[in-house]
Design brief:
Layout: H1 16-33, E1 49-50, H2 75-79, H3 97-101, H4 108-111, E2 116-118, E3 124-133, H5 142-149, E4 154-164, E5 169-178, H6 181-193, E6 219-226, E7 230-238, H7 246-268
Antiparallel strand pairs: 1-6, 2-3, 3-4, 4-5, 5-7, 6-7
């Protein structure tokens, strides 16, 4: 990992056509690989870079509909200048899409059904926190919130914080679900091009977890996947803010991202959540 890899990627050039092409290519790949099922996603890049979102989501209230207590971006978010993105569905989009989008949005217990998770590679993780809100700007960077506002809106944002058996890693996986598949596509395309600017907020561990809060500005791994109507984000960091161990942190982050994505795909396809424990 070079020093350049650790720098925040500010001011990357954005090409709206490229973002639309990225989304269209993703949909083409989906249809090629799984013609009998609509929702599938492709892992995209992201290296160990400095996180730029300070603060995190905290929990208040009770049960599944607990809201994020951190103040939601208001005037700041709407004043942020972001590219104007327009994504349209391809002409051969599956005819089943309208009925799939008519289903209720995936809920926390469907996306994150387990507190103890065992992945196919044998690694184990504990879910130490869970937050959900219908005010999606509470859990995103101002730039991502402004991008979401360009479309027809986000229906629900749910985030969970996982840690490994050594309680060293902190991986926040966030499911952002939209009214329209086009809006999920535009968010996925732009976040793929600039994952640091267009990111979701990492959860701070609750006091009962007995885990440190990651120091502000610490390095992290950013990944994302896309389903029918949702974008699943994963932000992985070491609890002590270490910038070493990128390979292991990436493995954990990608594994947990795939686990949650599989749950969301199963729900959005009308199947039972797969479960891995």
């Amino acid at each position: 990992m070079t020093p350049d890899d650790q720098r925040p990627r500010y001011g990357l050039p954005y090409d709206p056509a490229a973002a639309a092409d990225a989304w269209t290519a993703e949909q083409d790949r989906i249809r090629r690989r799984r013609r009998t099922r609509l929702a599938v996603a492709a892992a995209t890049g992201g290296v160990l870079v400095a996180a730029v979102v300070a603060g995190a989501l905290t929990l208040t209230g009770g049960e599944d509909d607990r809201q994020a207590a951190a103040p939601a971006p208001t005037a700041t978010a709407t004043a942020v200048a972001v590219p104007s993105v327009s994504v349209t569905l391809p002409s051969d989009a599956p005819s089943s899409l309208p009925s799939l989008l008519a289903r209720p949005v995936v809920r926390p217990e469907q996306a994150f059904p387990e507190t103890a998770v065992r992945l196919p590679d044998g690694s184990r993780y504990e879910r130490v926190d869970l937050a959900t809100t219908t005010e999606c700007a509470r859990g995103t960077s101002p730039e991502l919130a402004a991008l979401i506002d360009q479309g027809k809106g986000c229906l629900r944002l749910t985030a969970a914080l996982f840690t490994d058996t050594d309680r060293r890693s902190q991986v926040t996986v966030t499911v952002v679900s939209f009214r329209r598949a086009e809006d999920a596509g535009s968010v996925f395309g732009l976040a793929s091009m600039d994952p640091v600017t267009y990111q979701t907020v990492s959860l701070d561990p609750p006091p009962e977890a007995n885990m440190p809060t990651v120091p502000p500005g610490s390095a992290g791994v950013f990944r994302r996947l896309m389903t029918v109507r949702s974008v699943v984000f994963a932000n992985g960091q070491w609890g002590d803010g270490a910038e070493t161990g990128e390979t292991e942190l990436t493995r954990q982050t990608e594994g947990l991202l795939q686990y949650v994505n599989d749950n969301v795909v199963a729900y959005e396809d009308g199947d039972d959540a797969p479960g891995t424990s």
